[in-house]
Structure formats: C-alpha cells, structure tokens
Specification:
Elements (H helix, E strand, L loop, with lengths): L31 E10 L5 E5 L2 E5 L14 E10 L14 E6 L7 H15 L3 E5 L14 E2 L2 H4 L19 H12 L3 E6 L1 H16 L5 E6 L15 H21 L3 E7 L6 H10 L4 E3 L13 H11 L3 E6 L24 H15 L5 E5 L2 H5 L5 H15 L5 H5 L12 E6 L2 E6 H4 L11 H10 L6
Parallel strand pairs: 5-6, 5-8, 8-9, 9-14, 10-12, 10-13, 11-12
Antiparallel strand pairs: 1-4, 2-3, 4-15, 6-7, 14-15
Helix pairs in contact: 1-10, 3-4, 5-6, 6-13
GO biological process, one term: fructose 6-phosphate metabolic process
Catalytic activity: beta-D-fructose 6-phosphate + ATP = beta-D-fructose 1,6-bisphosphate + ADP + H(+)
Keywords: Allosteric enzyme, ATP-binding, Glycolysis, Kinase, Magnesium, Metal-binding, Nucleotide-binding, Transferase
C-alpha cells in the first residue's frame, strides 16, 4: 500500500504536501549506511576507519586513530539499513493504534521526540495515538491511564523540559506488558524512548510478540544523556548536556579564581562513560583536571590528583576539576545496591574528592578554598537546545517511518533482529539508520583512552597521568 496520506487528518492544520507520484523523497529498501569496520586476520596490513561518506586510509596501524590489535589484519565493512520513509507500508493507518512510552531518567529532548512522533503519525493518517504514563509501570498500574495524544496536545510541549508522559525505572514483567499491548489496549506500534536497560526491555517485548506471532512493531529511540549507546554518533540530549555543563564549569571557575587558593570541583553525569565530562572540559577551556571512568587515577601519592592540585595552587593560584560520576569508583567502598533498572548505585565521587581535598590541604598546612558544584538534575530537566531539537525531530520522524511485517522483513536482511521491529534509530557516520537492538545494548559505549579526542582533552587541560 502506498503512503497516500501525508496530509493532516483535519483541516485545522493544513499542509502542502506533494502528491505521491510527484514526490521522490522515499528511501529505497536496499539503501545502506556504513556502520563500522571490523578486524579480521590477513596477510597484508590495510587499516581503515569509517568517516562520513568516505573511508580514512591509514598507512600504518600505529597512526593516530587507527586500531589494529592483531599482527596482520584488515578491515571488513559492515552496513545497516538507512532510515527514512518508504514508498510502501505494511500497516493501514486507520487500523493502527500507536503508543509512546518514556523510561529511565529525564533527558533534554524527550518532549521534542514525543511531539514529532505524534505529528508524523498524524501525517500518515493515524488517529489513535496514546501515551503510556510513567514508563513500563504504566502498563500494569491500574491507577495510571493512557493519555490520548494529538497534535493539539503536543503542539508546544517541546518548549519545556522533562517528559509529558513522566518517567520511571523498572516495571512489570514482559509477559504482562505484552498482554496489555495485545488484549487490553490493542496497540500495534510501540515507540520506546530510553537507554540501554529500556532497550533491553523493548527487545524482550519484541521477542515475546514474535513468539505470539503478533503484528506489533516495537521501535526504540535511544535516550541517554551520557552518549553511551554503541555504534551511534551521538544520542539526543548530549549536546544540551555539554552546553548546560558550561554554566556549572564557569561558576566553578569564577569561584576558584575569585578566592585565595580556590579550587572548584564540578561533577557531571557519566556512569560508565566520560563523554560529557570530556566534551564539556574541551568546550569550556577552563578545566585543569578531567577525570572519567575509563581512565584510572590515584587521588593520593606523588603522582596523584591531590599532589597535582598543590602544584596548580602554587603555580596558578587556583584550579578547576571536572569529574564524571562513575570515575574513581575503585577508590570508594561499594554499596552492592542497585536501582530499579538494575544499575549499581555509585558512591558520590564528587563529594569524596571535595572532602579528601580539604583534608589533604589541611594536613600539609596549605590554605585551600574548595567549592563543589553538582548540576546533574538542572541539566537533565532543561529544555533541549537547537541542535538537539533538530536531532530529536529527525529521530522521531525516522522512528515512525518503518512499519513493515516483522517476519517478512526478517527474511530479507540479517534475521529477525534486523527487521523493522526490535530495532532502534540513530545517527551513524552522519546518516540516520536502523540498528538491531541487541547490537547496541551489548555494553555501554566508552571513551577510548587512546583516541584523538581524549588526547585533545589532555592537551587542553595540560594534566599528567595520575597513575
């Protein structure tokens, strides 16, 4: 069936969309995006890496940015399906009931994605759109009722932060969720906004739907402010987080440089990955020490952070430290506790560094005025900036576009998980593509301590190794 309904379903929102026969904006099902390049043993060393539409050729595996672990290796290209509208669709729009759910914590851009999913669904001709309140919990809690969504409802929600639908962690079992989808609600499309844990849940829902042979499309939109989703250029909310972090860093800088022997400490988000701390440090130009989870460090000792802080106080008169929340957890006593999503509960490394810094300078008899700033919830709850706003819009549009038969498409590409259910949408090598969920949740994406970006950060801060 051709997508003949690209005009809004009411006259309240007139649109000037061209007729299908005059429009050449469809994506061919055979279009691919270069995903990555991987190593296999070979007799000749040919090292390359993906970059935009081209490939960088490195003459040697020792060249900056090239990675070649084995003695002899070359790269094999891997591809994923390009995202975008198709000329033919599987579902009849008038028979679709679509649902949106936002899980995990808050992130800038959630409302932008919700808004654009609803608008795009209406352009397709879908009239039954609902929001599931407070994450997966909304599928089982009898006190929570689904929220009818329309363009009128979501028109201005992107002007504020947070989520119109609310968020929560954890929820009912997979079987109970699918029962709700199938029996109670009659949902045929479910759009899931969340991070690794949420996507694991979406994948389990997809598998259960396949087991029951239900014609339900489960589509993910990666939401993690930490930018720690595998294979993707970035995730929405990250640009906003880096920009908002500048306010906290600048405040710490002013406090530190306005005080005698001032030290400003800023803790930013990043449980497993230090992308926010690294990029915020680079962007600010005001950080002297950047600490991330991927790079171990000593706090005490002649090569430790505290010794270097003393050097900075003596030479510069002040210092600013940026630390990711997951950094230095080996220095703290583990809690063995987990949150509702199953994530380990971390000790507060920012407070620990603040306390140890005060204690250290008192012991050595050097005055230090230590200020600590934690802007976590201010950053999470803020409105998306312009860059993230555009990014969210494109992600949402691409999330709605695919709606083919689950089983039929599985025969065309890499199996059931490479189909248009059980997938998530994101940017890869500057293009938008569909990714099988299991591939992107295998483990968090980490900062490569040998990467050019981390070395740029080290150059910008001037910090030494703290080992």
């Amino acid at each position: 069936m051709s997508m003949t309904r690209r005009t809004p379903r009411t006259n309240d929102f007139p649109g000037n969309y061209p007729l299908d026969e005059d429009w050449h904006g469809y994506i061919n099902d055979n279009d691919r995006v270069l995903l990555k390049v991987c190593l296999i043993p070979a007799n000749v060393v040919m090292v390359a890496a993906a970059s935009g539409d081209a490939t960088i050729h490195y003459s040697s595996p020792t060249s900056a940015g090239a990675e070649c672990i084995d003695p002899g290796c070359n790269w094999v290209e891997q591809w994923v399906h390009r995202a975008g509208p198709r000329g033919k669709i599987y579902f009849k729009p008038e028979e679709v009931k679509a649902a949106i759910v936002t899980c995990g914590g808050l992130c800038p851009g959630l409302n932008d994605v919700i808004r654009q999913i609803v608008i795009t669904l209406e352009i397709y001709g879908v009239t039954k759109i609902v929001g599931i309140p407070y994450g997966y919990r909304g599928f089982s809690d009898q006190e929570l009722t689904e929220l009818p969504l329309s363009r009128r409802v979501v028109q201005n929600i992107h002007l504020s932060g947070g989520s119109l639908l609310g968020v929560s962690r954890g929820g009912p079992g997979v079987s109970e969720i699918v029962d709700s989808l199938e029996v109670e609600r009659g949902i045929t499309m479910l759009f899931v906004l969340g991070g690794n844990g949420t996507h694991a849940g979406a994948n389990a829902i997809h598998n259960e739907c396949r087991k029951r042979r239900l014609k339900v499309s489960i589509i993910g939109v990666p939401k993690t402010i930490d930018n720690d989703i595998l294979l993707m250029d970035k995730t929405f909310g990250f640009d906003t987080a880096v920009e908002e972090a500048q306010r906290a860093i600048n405040s710490a800088y002013i406090e530190a440089h306005s005080a005698y022997h001032g030290i400003g400490i800023v803790k930013l988000m990043g449980r497993d990955s230090g992308f926010i701390a690294m990029h915020a440090s680079l962007a600010s130009g005001q950080i002297d020490i950047c600490l991330i989870p991927e790079v171990p460090f000593n706090l005490h000792g002649p090569r430790g952070v505290l010794s270097y802080l003393k050097y900075l106080i003596e030479t510069k008169g002040s210092a600013v430290v940026c630390v990711a929340e997951g950094a230095g957890q080996n220095l703290l006593q583990k809690t063995n506790a987990t949150d509702a999503s199953g994530n380990p509960v971390f000790r507060d490394i920012g407070v620990y560094i603040q306390q140890e810094t005060k204690k250290h300078f008192k012991e050595i008899g050097v005055h230090a005025d230590v200020k600590y700033i934690d802007p976590t919830y201010m950053i999470r709850a803020c409105r998306a900036n312009a860059s993230d706003g555009i990014f969210c819009t494109v992600l949402a549009q691409n999330a709605v576009s695919p709606s083919p038969d689950i089983v039929a498409f599985a025969d065309i590409v890499h199996g059931a998980f490479a189909g248009y259910s059980g997938i998530t949408v994101g940017a890869c090598n500057t293009h938008y593509a569909y990714f099988p969920i299991p591939e992107v949740i295998a483990h968090p994406k980490l900062v490569d301590s040998n990467s050019r970006m981390w070395h740029r950060c080290l150059t910008a801060t001037g910090q030494p190794d703290f080992i």
